[in-house]
Batch of 3 targets.
Target 1
Amino acid sequence: MKLIKSVTVSSTNLTDPKQSDSGDSALIHVGISACLAGIEVRYNGGHSQSKFCLNTLSEYFNFKTFCPEVAAGFSVPRPTMRLVGDPNNPRLTYSDNDTADLTQQLNDAIHPQLAKFDHLDGYVLMKNSPSCGYERVKVYQANGHPHTTRRQGIFTEQLQKKYPLLPIEEDGRLNDPSLRENFILRVYAHHNFRHEVLAHLSLHNLIKFHSRYKYTLMAHHQVLYKALGKMLANTGDASIEDVSNRYFKLFMQALAKPASVRNQTNTLLHILGYLKKSVSSESRKNMASVIHKYSQHKMPLITPLTLLSHYIEQHGSKYIREQRYFNPYPEALGLRNRV
Ligand code: SF4
């Protein structure tokens, strides 16, 4: 095999990403399969450039590219590879010669790189790849047919093992407005938690963080929203490290559940309650009617949100005005126009 220059972790330098809306100047670093960034590392010498990542997300994220197969020394172009054997512990091999076991060669290249990913807040992966696939990757039996059970690629499995809370998504799934919105919301939440809580660890900062994410949590997962509130109200003798670890795990788990229209509606109505004393009943009736139309899928989330945030900005308390629910990510991404 011809060894080409290894594409490991590097900035794609596509544009200068914008700073986050929260005022945090730290850049948001997101990993990406190198072929999605337009780098010609695929088995056929080509790439699978993701227009959404390169044209839109690169305005906000500093993408770090990595190709596990090239890092492992496989050439470009190279014979196609696939997973074979036990779906729980498959081998990586060439599609036309399954006697070669390439698993160790790939793993040896992945492990040293994983340690360098601790500053990432998300990862976008190429679908169907035996290395980078996020799910539904085929594992072939000895008779040449795939098992019905599908799985992750070898790199993805190691990435998730090392960073179980890291938001990960497949490029193709980002075409779904709801999955796209959910992934980007989680990337920003992961980033905010690392910078606002983990970087300055204290119960005060953790409670402050939770306080700002209350309505986002309510819209995503009612049960975990309540559980997280209880956790912070009863920390007992637990160390702040222990509390923040448990909090982060449940917090990311809660956000991984896309917000349903029903939960969004309840959250919007709850927020509307804050305007009871300061806004006329006529105006509140109008807002309730717009929220109702959203709940019937007659308008996108952005419509009641814009109306509500206009009044909250003028009449809401500091607590409600500071809710991340109103700006979980840059508005210019337009993600709430389609959910
Ligand atoms: Fe490399 Fe992964 Fe793209 Fe395959 S899918 S070319 S392993 S980055």
Note: The CA atoms of residues 202 and 240 lie 6 Å apart.
Target 2
Amino acid sequence: MRHFDEIKMTSIETHFTNDPDRAKRMSLKWEDFFIDYSKNRLNSKTILLMCEFAKEAGLEKAINAYFEGEKINQTENRAVLHTALRNFSMDSLLIDNKNIIPEIHAVRKKMKLFSNKIISGEWKGFTGKSITHIVNVGIGGSDLGPLMVTEALEFYKNHLTTFFISNVDGDHVNEVLKKCPIETTLFLIVSKSFNTQETITNAKTIKKWFLSNSSEVSLSKHFIAISSNTQKIKEYGLTKENVFLMKNWTGGRFSLWSSAGLSICLSIGYENFEKLLKGAEAMDIHFKKTPFEKNMPLILSFIGVWYNNFYNAETEVIIPYTQYLRSFPNYLQQASMESNGKSVDRNGENVTYQTGTIIWGSTGTNAQHAFFQLIHQGTRLIPADFIGFKNSLYKEKEHQDQLIANFFAQTEALMKGKKKSEVIRELELANYSSKSIDRLLPFKIFKGNCPTNSILIKELTPYNLGALISLYESKIFTQGILWNIFSYDQWGVELGKELANKILITINSRSNNIQNKSTEQLINLYRF
Ligand code: F6P
């Protein structure tokens, strides 16, 4: 706190004046990644103190426990091992006295064989035609990760058309079905629990649609289940040949690396899917082995905590300067907010500080023309992560130069703002009268001093995307340790699910088991 008081009034620009080497010192390089975090309201001492804080919080031990499969999801008594799904060097990892690695390899092999069959056209639908359309049916982690990655790697995509159905909104499923040829569409029902209302309802509707023009025996040619609940899959009508198993140590929001990523594997091919995993593994190794002060996920997590807990910033905005990453902010929203949206610490006590940040964002340059005004001149402090790629995939130099110029310009503008003297000079040059200048002055001044991280990556490849996702996963993990909260459960979403079921009964049975007058009034309005 003393350090915060010392530097809180120092602007980012003043930090640059005080330390001419700052840009160099506050930049990190790793493989194709470059992170410049110098445009922040902090100095080297801040990072040093954050490193000490992380050591005191037992981060090193926590990282080992995480990777080694200790049951760090204590409230559900589970290990958190999405990192094992992308580990290509380990032969053995014991969970409940069972080595889980051979099983991981077996699932990967099954994904490879299956996706090769679908992509090559060897797998035939019920009328003997090859598959042309893939529909992923799932919600939350069973949708957001696969959707985001499939979009992000569109450049590497094959001939298969891919759709995602998530919402229980019947219009969503029908709009997609409208575009799916029944003879050549493969449905992937992705639900770790196979108990999620939205997914099961959509799966039943799709099955009914399918059976209205084919027979039960044809189901196995068009439906795949990805889940850990073998009993429910059986009830749905699928046998084990059509099942890809998920394990309970794969958290839903971190499941794209598992068989839940089958839609990714199908759309870009197994080799590219493996590159995605390998990129994530490489970033995991960086996270595990790099000293705190040079560690990319750690530095990003320190900066997040710094603004959240000292400057009371409430949100963090993510701006990828590529249209491919249009769903990345959404994906991170779940990964981060479902993980760290907790108000009870690891001892079950209410926390006395802010935890999880609100994550939002959109692509640059579109976002500049939408909500940047509020970041530049609004009343709130909104730290931003800018993510860009040095090379564009179609090598459109004119476009790429403009895109990157905007990225850099915005980080500069956010930091510098526009001073009174600059506005006056600008208006004088445009021949404004001194009266008009006085009147316009307050509106045209930008206070600046808005913090940004610049993440510049060589090219959007499957490998680099894997590393980027892993970078943020480890940031989320670290923040959970620093805030002393459990990041891998999500009890808060359960109440709404229970009440939705209760209200559904009320809607269908016309009896009333709802106490609240406002809710009752809404139900009646809907029913009659
Ligand atoms: O409602 C939250 C949640 O449990 C997420 O954590 C999960 O990703 C999503 O629901 C879907 O769960 P499932 O894969 O079991 O259908």
Note: The first strand starts at residue 27 and ends at 30.
Target 3
Amino acid sequence: MLTEEEERMLEDEEKGECMKIIIALAKVFDAERLVKISSAHISGVSYDNIGDEGLEWLRNLKGKVAVRTTLNPAGMDLERWKEMGIGEEFYRKQMEIIEVFKRLGVELTLTCTPYYIQKPKFGEHLAWAESSAVVYANSVIGARTNRESGISALASAITGRTPYYGLHIKENRAPTVLVKARGDLSIVGYKAGLELPGEIPYFIFDRRVSFDELKLLSASLAASGNIAMFHAEGITPEWRDFERPRESVEIDGEIEKHCEAQLVAIGCPHCSKEELKEILKLIADRKVKRELWIFTSRKVAEESREIIRKLEELGAKVFKDTCMVVSPATEKFECVMVNSGKALEYLPKKRRLEVSFGDLKACIETAVS
Ligand code: F3S
């Protein structure tokens, strides 16, 4: 099953432990062989998630990543952590985690949208661990990745290999159920995940949809239904390669979820430059009257300085490197309004918050009212 190079890695002082993890996973999933990957993306970066035990394990890792490796958001904005209400102790531990990743050669991208930094190519094999990015990579880009854990993605980063099974194999990427969808795609994804967990939906939309909407759909499907891939007619690069599923359902993007929000949080997954522009347009020179937190990556922030300056002048706060779910900073609020199906699923579970849902326009109207 292993090539000579892979056998040697097993004996290697620096890569050996990671190779053992990859081989153990290959056995669990009955993978006949390993496959070379072109990039890895590591999740579970927040100290809140890793804790002291995880930090200890990370500290003992040796070597360097063998492929381009990006990093998910951490538990705080690395510069504006005090403003978020993060304490000194958390800050120190979080920075230690970041330092370990840096030593391993991981790029400190701190975002769940690594495809904005470097878009993988069609057909490339990846080992990505952020569930929303996994769906986007498989479904919108046509790259191939299973839904990795933080540890397996790191082991793949160091060895440059992942077990060849699941969505790496073409025939396992066939759609299983046809979904006629209309309305808000965050909610379509949220409902489809609940109704059709683990399936590969084949979507037909009632209108032209944007890549930002597909990003929100990807995140919702992954969060509520453990879904790792979908097909969208006319969009997914492989949509013509399989038969249309016979079983079909209709899903609308409507939901009633209301509470009196003290915080409006946008950017799950992290905002693109287009979304930042759209938010600025929707605010339309009005003053933001409630807390409005917008999350994006440092890369997009760098490219959107002027837009961010204007947003902040109007009273919004644009944080990078983190998000409303992975940071404990949102716990000081009781009700948070979001436009994301993933945040709708995770904020009550991970942060014990009530959540109000609205599309981007509704969220901005709440923030200025
Ligand atoms: Fe990204 Fe955080 Fe949402 S990591 S997908 S913004 S939960």
Note: The two ends are 62 Å apart (CA to CA).
